[in-house]
Amino acid sequence: MRVWFLAIGMVAAFTAQALAANDARFFKSLEKLAPADRLEQLCDYTAMTEIRKDKRGFRPERAVANAGGETKINGHSIQSTNGAFRSKKKWYAMTYSCTATPDHLKVVSFKFTIGDEIPAARWAVLGLYL
Q1: pLDDT (tens digit, 9 = 90+) per residue, 70-84?
Q2: In terms of domains, do 17 and 40 share one?
Q3: Residue 51 shares a structural domain with residue 7
Q4: SS3 for 23?
Q5: Could you give the 3-state DSSP secondary structure of residue 102?
Q6: How far apart are the first and last CA of the chain?
Q7: Residue 106 DSSP class
Q8: Are 35 and 43 in contact (CB under 8 A)?
């Protein structure tokens, strides 16, 4: 039994290290984007990070701020009222409000809501795919 818990602990440690490495690569790649693109990517990434914490067990691998229409960008803030995220081969509606630092490399305010599952018949119309 003790070996089992040790193995689980090792897997968790390696997973945490892999996620940290991915985070570092992501934030390094942000620096190469234009400011408006950087803001949207940062906020979509933050949406996925926050959705992973939801008690319903979502595992988002993609988020799109503008799935159902254009987002509203005002300075260092973005308002997504027609967003979507993919988790476990299904798409779900989401909305979020995100404000970043002036360099668009760090989020200072983030609020979101998770909506209903989006039927597969609507995916193509919204530009969503597996």
Answers
A1: 899 999 999 999 999
A2: no
A3: no
A4: helix
A5: coil
A6: 39
A7: S
A8: no
